[in-house]
Fold this protein.
Amino acid sequence: MREPEIRCPQCKWRPKMDSRWCCNPGCQHEWNTFWTAGVCPACAKAWITTVCPSCHVRSPHKDWYHFPDDDEEVVKEEIAEKADA
């Protein structure tokens, strides 16, 4: 399976390796949310939505992942299950 393309579902902005989000409200840890499928590595809070630093719109975290048409729904389900764990 190919790696997903990660981009804002609203404005198509793409995070870089050094892009960071803050677990707020939460433990205030900063990390790249896409390294952990939206789960804070410090406190294990699962973020269902992610705010785009470019357009400032909050979207479901799973909607940021874009896969080849055959794999997209299956992988989004796997990401949602990981966040629920």
Remarks:
- The chain has a mean pLDDT of 89.
